[in-house]
Amino acid sequence: MVYEIYFDESNKLDQPDGKLSYYGALGADGQSIDELIIYINDLYTKLNTKNEMHFVNYTSDTQFEKYFRTMNYVVEQDINFNIMIVNKQDATKIARQMGITLLELRELFYVKIPERLFYGMTRDLSAGNNVKIVIDENSEYEKLNLERKIMEQMNAHSAYRNKGYNISEVAQADSEKSIPIQIIDIFMGIIIFLLENEKFKKRFTRKCGIYGKK
Q1: Within its chain, how far is the Cα of 102 from the centroid?
Q2: Which domain holds residue 43?
């Protein structure tokens, strides 16, 4: 069996926008991912739409059916989601204490991503299973050797936990062509809206684990 994981992030630690940094992952077996993509493509055909889905692009009720039916389908499937949230103010403080830049701190956080986001999705996999990890295309990731780091960390987890699954591929993909990455973007966008909209913030943070101060 091939298990697929898709990764995206928003409001990066070294970017000035937002108070929180978000890391999201979607995971499912290859067949479920294929069925998801087929469903979304068929939906696009029925609705006569070709635009990729991003939360920031949801600006009109004319797009409601596309987004609603997509999210409704996803939540009814055996698809896993994990989201890690980091307080930027606390991250800045830690970086100063360590004498490093926010970009360097962000690079250190990537080492923890496999453990915090991916491992929970693969804990039930066993020997002989292959895992494919896809990350949103970004030239910065090449400079940080993110693909190599993720592969090394995940295979180390597999060996240490005596699981025996293998990370067969870590690759970048253009979100315009990757429906699973678009879906991560939408879910993270909803959470960002809830957390950063003061009307909903107090109610929502009680139910979410947030790393750093609330």
Answers
A1: 20
A2: 2-205
Distance between CA atoms of residues 162 and 70, nearest Å = 37
Question: Tokens 């009109």 — which residue?
Answer: 60
Cβ atoms of 80 and 123 closer than 8 Å: no
Q: Which residue has the tokens 């009307």?
A: 199
pTM as predicted: 0.85
In a domain, 210, yes or no: no
The number of residues making up the chain comes to 214
> pLDDT tens digits for 94-153?
999 999 998 889 888 888 787 788 988 998 888 889 999 999 998 888 888 889 989 999
**Count of domains forming the chain:** 1
CB 39 within 8 Å of CB 28: no
Classify 145 in phi/psi space as left (phi over 0), alpha (psi -120 to 50) or beta: left
- Please name the helix (run of DSSP H) or strand (run of DSSP E) that holds residue 121, with its range, or none: helix 119-122
